[in-house]
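FAQ: What does the model actually see?

It sees only this:
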Amino acid sequence: MSEGYRGRAEILVDGRQVVVDVQLADWFDPISGRHRWRGRLRDLAAALAPDAPPSTGTELTVTVLDTGRAATATATARVTDIDLWGSHMIDGISAAPYPAGPDELDLLDGDRPDPDLPATDTADIRREQR
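And it is asked to produce this:
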């Protein structure tokens, strides 16, 4: 899991563009061998217009304004829920709009994100026993 992103992001939904606070997180899904990401968009309905908040299933574009680590990135997401506080919960459809950790497919045989960590699977343990 990477550090995720917490800060300002530009949201484009139905041709309307606003800037809101977001909290995004990713994790590695071992079933698919890919990183998944999701997040929370705070005060999106108020920023757009109270009479036209996006509903569940709406696709939108998220552009992280300042990662401090890499160039600004854009991603596509879908609204999955609206929480008790009115924040819109989203699931990523494309790659995360900030640097995420490597996918299983990105790792070469024997490579681990941190080689100083102990072996965690049978193939790694066998390699270290040689």
